[in-house]
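TEACHING EXERCISE
Course module: macromolecular assemblies
Task: Read the component lines below, then compare them to the predicted structure of the full complex.
Student: A.B.
Group: 4
Components provided:
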Amino acid sequence: MNTLKIASRSILRNVRRSLMTVLAIAVGASSLVVFGEFVARVFAQLETRGVISGGHMAIYHRGYFDFGTGNPAAYGIRDYQSLLDLVANDAVLQPKINVATPIINLFGIAANFQDEASKTFFGRGVIPADYNRMQHWDEHGLRDFVVDASINTTDLSHGNVGVGLARILKLTKPLKLSAEKDASGVEEPAHGAELPKRDFTGLEDSTHAIENGSDSGASVARLDLLAATAGGAPNVVTFFADKAIAQGMKEVDDSFVLMNFALSQQLLFGRGEKQAVGIVLQLHHTRDIAAVRARLEQLFREKNLNLEVRDLKELQPFYKQAVGMFSAIFMFVAVIMIVIVLFTIVNTMSMSVMERTHEIGTLRALGVERTGVMAQFILEGALLGLIGTFLGLAVGVAISEFVNHAGLMWQPPGSAFPIPLKLMTSGAVRLFVSIGLGLSGVAIFAALIPARNAGRMAVVDALGHV
Amino acid sequence: MNDEQATVVFENVSKTYRMGEVEVPALKGISLEIPASRFSMVLGPSGSGKTTLLNLIGCLDQASSGTVTVCGQDISELSDRAVSQFRARHIGFIFQNFNLIPVLSAYENVEYPLVLLGLSANERRERTEQILEAVGLSRVATHRPNQLSGGQKQRVAIARALVKGPSLVLADEPTANLDSKTGAAIIELMYKVQAAYGATFIFSTHDPQLISHAQDSFVIRDGELIEHRVNEARLQNAEAK
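Instructor-supplied answer key:
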């Protein structure tokens, strides 16, 4: 009790020095809070973008992921419906899975014969209802970030394309895209719809025009998609682009076609057996990835299925790379802050020990043991650390609230358009606890050396008798 | 006089300080016995070794040679921790510069040794209030040291030294930083509380005029004990009281 009393009053006794120390710690703590929340937000955005487009994991025929993307038909999953039933009816998997849906990935040539334009494309066939349901996954509450990329559910010949592909294939007019990029390099809709939500309602007219048999070519985004079937024969289907959805990377944006699963089956397998290339699984919670993967692999072994599972980090290498990069930057910033806090407290406590040498001698003469003197100064360091950390956390929260309400925009890695710059305040308790414990621990560690020196002083030297 | 009657026994004690390559002898083979429950004084000029002597008696330092026995305990046999506990239980200190903890009030400074002994809050309060009353500081109990005069600070230091009921109280030049009037008052106060509490009081001074206050006087010069004088009148006076 007396130790705490002396420690707290000693801090208040030298207000200016204590204040500077506390402020240094607070700056460190608030920086870590703000940057930590920023990084957490980036992680959440990247994860959400990956999960809504490609799910948390995918089941492929063994070897497809490494060797089969160039020849997807050779790695098809024949009885994919049974596999879907197996997943859907498993007691372990069922409560964890939000969507389990078959997909087809294929490559081919997309042609706009009307305007004499063609381009190789990467196509993904999805079941529209499942795909649209996947678009609503939002575990981290990032509604202002999620773009409406839903696909037509009624007509199997309709789908979406990348903005880049739409331009290359001269679909800017029917898709109402501006012909030129704006100065920032960001694709803007022609009629000033606000980003990031894009308004493609104008496409309804062209869709109706097609349905009514008045396909004029200029108002309908029609493409012919060519690909080789599983048997090696050329095949072609007619495809209508309803929306142009900007993709994060230019290479993808310039070649992406999102089509109905049935249409992609028709294109890839022709009159042959209809298969799926993969089964995409979207979970309710990302934290279940390991458990679901383990259960699936167990099921495959038990049923002797020649299948493999690939999860988010494998399906979206960019996600893994970005997480790694931002984690490294965060660690770098954290180390700098820790070093600053460390030296500030060592300096403050060393000054305190030096100034209070007489007091140390007195305490020892009264009967306080070496460890008691050490505890005195460690407690002071810990108190400075705690006060600075709590102040820093409070300032960090205030900055976060300010940033989240300032309406700032930025273009994160992998994003094709600017999105609101926000910090991840929800679920930040773990970050706060980590920073609080970390900096308090650093404060205690920093106080150890001066405290040890104080404890080791010879009593007569400290009293100034010699 | 045997060991049981003496609070402090020095047997051929020497203390040498090393200043770089140079060895400086502070005490040279001193042997003495300081009787229990007496008001004793160590007298000598500056640099004579008074403070070193008190440091050894107070277990603040260790002799280079010889044996120091305090309250029947050979100090050299104790570990650092045991010495701290010994000081906390048996020895009270009064310093020339008062050495009060600046962030504690007068009351808290006096109470502090009792906290170290682990006494209950009630007992601490009772003893602290009693001793503050005895030294006449009840009214300034809540004041911090920087709000007290020199005399008041030294009274707080006396109260702090006595509050735990020590066997031995050491005062190193307790009047050096006080004017002569206040110094005399402090010596008189120390004498009174020594008589009241029965502790062995040893104070050092370079002022020969204070010799009349002591029952026992040990005169040292250049690290050697020159004279041990007993003030019979003072002794009889104390016995009469």
